Amino acid sequence: MCWPGGSAGGDHRIAARSPVAVIAHPIPFGRGSEHVGEALLAGPGPQPGPADQVRVVSVQGVDAAHLVLTDTDLSDCLFSGAFHLDQIRLEGRTAVAPAPTGWHRRAIRPVRFTRRRVLAEEHHWRAHTAGQPVPAADAAPELRLWRPGPHHTDPARTPGPEDVAALYRQLRKAFEDGKNEPGAADFYYGECEMRRHDPTGTTKSERRPLWGYWLLSGYGLRASRAFTWLLAAMALTVVLLMGVGLPTHDPDPATTGFLHGSKVSLNTSTPEPALHGGWQLRMTWVRAEKATRVAVNSVVFRSSGQNLTTPDTYIEMTSRLLEPTLLALGVLAIRGRIKR
Predict the structure, then answer these.
(1) Which of 24, 70, 120, 196 is the Cys-Cys partner for 210 at CB 3.0 to 4.6 Å?
(2) In 3D, which of 213, 227, 211 has the Cα closest to residue 326?
(3) Which pLDDT tens digit goes with each residue over 213-270?
């Protein structure tokens, strides 16, 4: 069964128990030289998606194992309540609502949401928790705000983070089964976000590592974030090494001897590295070059070979644990975006 949307688009609620394919036709249907009228296919309300895409607004109660959506607009589609959602097939240009754009303020700190594709259910939950007002029925979606749902004023009918996480997980599997790993990345991000905000289905001991995973690398999907932290960690390592780590002078071995009759006893020892002098002697280009070598070698698990003071030894040990981890997270994020 094929349900075309034509050039004008339209709103459709899928409710079928047999195999269904919803496909958008890129040009108007015609009879001879005349175009077939498609005004009845366009539903009321704002049409945020492209004009040549069918706008699916709900698949609730549908057995998604028999459903194929091609070139469809799913910006406002409700997936909660669908069966076998992990077997749905999404092909072609599938439009999903983006996260709000621009900078926002949360209490006293600025916040900028990560650019990604977001399900309508997450929009509805975040709009409810943020206390956004209900927009007018004919108002166009505000790109800087989350989109309130049809039950915005009723929290009992608004899906919670545990429900939205399950939707993301199933749709992610559908993309992965279709060998579309990069396409599944945003759904994995959304799943982790919902688990991080879920106080009932996810324990505090699980949410804390998720928070750190999000902060350091965006759940292993944001290479820029991981590499930014890596550069910051290396810069901090260099400053600490110059300030309290590298000795002012490399210690020279000293040999002492004792004469016992006709025998001479020799003993060679190396003094412990020591740091002397004020900050003007410590913050020099020569010491910066040595500290940079230590930091770079730490990223690839190599010993710098420098003479280090006791604080410097612990600084190097910490950097050799943290910085390679950040490098691996950055490589993992790049791999997730180009994986076949």
Answers:
(1) 196
(2) 227
(3) 999 999 999 999 999 999 999 899 888 888 776 766 666 666 666 667 667 676 665 6
Q: Kindly state the tokens that stand for 114.
A: 């990560």
Supply 5's token pair.
Answer: 């949307």
**DSSP assignments along 2-21, one per residue:** EEE-TTT-EEEE---SS-EE
- Residues 202 and 9: their CA atoms lie apart, in Å, by 40
Vertex 308: Cα angle to 304 and 310 (nearest 5) = 130
Q: What whole-number distance in Å separates Cα of residue 296 and Cα of residue 72?
A: 48
DSSP annotation of 101 reads P
Q: How many helices (H) and strands (E) does the chain have?
A: 8, 13
CA angle 116, 119, 121 (to 5 degrees): 140
CB 248 within 8 A of CB 277: yes
Do 115 and 190 touch, CB atoms closer than 8 A?
no
Helical packing angle, 120-129 and 161-177, nearest 10° = 160
Q: How many CA atoms lie within 13 A of 66 on its CB side?
A: 12
Residue 4, pLDDT score? 40
Name residue 131's amino acid: G
Q: Which has the minimum average pLDDT: 18-27, 158-167, 171-180, 312-321?
A: 18-27
Q: Give the residue carrying structure tokens 């698990």.
A: 301
pLDDT top residue among 9 and 73? 73
Which residues are within 8 A (CB) of 32 and not within 5 positions of it... i.e. 6 or more apart? none
Local structure of residue 339 (DSSP, 8 states)? -
